[in-house]
């Protein structure tokens, strides 16, 4: 199984990058590649810019990378109830290259935040929107209170959440059998 991993943040110490990489590691038979929005920086989307310059090469490159994968393990960071500006900008550019840029990709959609809601606002936004762009959402998980529930040496330490996560992961693994 070819797995691509993405955190919806440009922060160097992004908890969503850490979380997505941890979860991807649970798919033990996977060939995992971690992508970073910082490697695909694009100007702020603007119609006039697009008319003058076309779409940035980075948008095309990122779609190619995503399309190489069979499963995208993505964890979205929540800013004011929705996507980070960096992720939304990337999303907008990708949709200008090809509306169905997630076509044929199974997506494990997640979010985490330091607070009690675990990024549920951004998760819901993505759950409603990603399929319009071709994503097949095969699992969903939100991790609240990241700092309390996740430890670098041990991973996820909340047993109830761990059981739910492993159930999601196992369900997804079955799809590839
Ligand atoms: C501008 C801004 C808005 C935020 N809004 C929310 C929010 O709506 N809900 C939430 O749970 N956390 C919010 N946070 C806290 C983020 O979840 C936290 O910074 C988290 O670490 C971001 O994810 P990242 O580390 O993957 O970038 C916000 C943080 C910033 C800087």
Structural class by helix and strand composition: alpha/beta
Q: Which hetero ligands occur in this complex?
A: flavin mononucleotide
What integer is the average pLDDT?
A: 97
Strands side by side in the biggest sheet: 2-1-3-4-5
- Flag low-confidence runs: none
Kindly give the count of domains: 1
How far apart the termini lie comes to 10 Å
Note the run of SSEs as H and E.
EHEHHEHEHEHEEH
State the CATH class.
Alpha Beta
Number of helical elements: 7
Strand content: 15-25%
Description:
This protein is of the alpha/beta class. The chain has one domain: Flavodoxin domain (Rossmann fold, 3-Layer(aba) Sandwich). The chain contains seven helices and seven strands. It has helices spanning 15-24, 47-53, 57-68, 85-97, 120-129, 146-149, 159-175, and strands spanning 2-7, 31-34, 71-76, 106-112, 136-143, 150-151, 155-156. The strands form two sheets. Strands 2-1-3-4-5 form a five-stranded parallel β-sheet, with helices on both faces. Strands 6-7 form a two-stranded antiparallel sheet. Helix 1 (15-24) links the parallel strand 1 (2-7) and strand 2. Helix 3 (57-68) packs across helix 4. The longest helix is centred in the last third of the chain and has 17 residues, at 159-175. It is globular. The N and C termini lie close together (10 Å). The model has no long low-confidence stretch (mean pLDDT 97). The chain binds flavin mononucleotide. Flavin mononucleotide is lined by residues 7, 9, 11, 14-16, 77-81, 113-115, 117, 119.
């Amino acid at each position: 199984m070819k797995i691509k991993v993405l955190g919806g943040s440009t922060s160097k110490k992004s908890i969503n990058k850490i979380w997505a990489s941890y979860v991807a590691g649970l798919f033990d038979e996977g060939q995992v590649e971690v992508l970073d929005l910082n490697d695909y920086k694009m100007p702020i989307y603007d119609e006039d810019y697009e008319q003058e310059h076309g779409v940035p090469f980075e948008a095309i490159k990122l779609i190619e990378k995503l399309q190489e994968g069979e499963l995208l393990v993505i964890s979205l960071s929540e800013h004011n109830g929705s996507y980070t500006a960096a992720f939304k900008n990337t999303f907008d550019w990708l949709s200008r290259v090809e509306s169905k840029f997630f076509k044929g990709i199974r997506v494990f959609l997640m979010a985490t935040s330091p607070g009690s809601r675990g990024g549920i606002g951004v998760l819901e936004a993505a759950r409603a929107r990603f399929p319009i762009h071709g994503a097949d959402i095969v699992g969903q998980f939100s991790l609240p209170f990241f700092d309390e529930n996740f430890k670098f040496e041990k991973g996820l330490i909340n047993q109830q959440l761990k059981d739910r996560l492993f159930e999601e992961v196992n369900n997804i693994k079955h799809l590839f059998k």
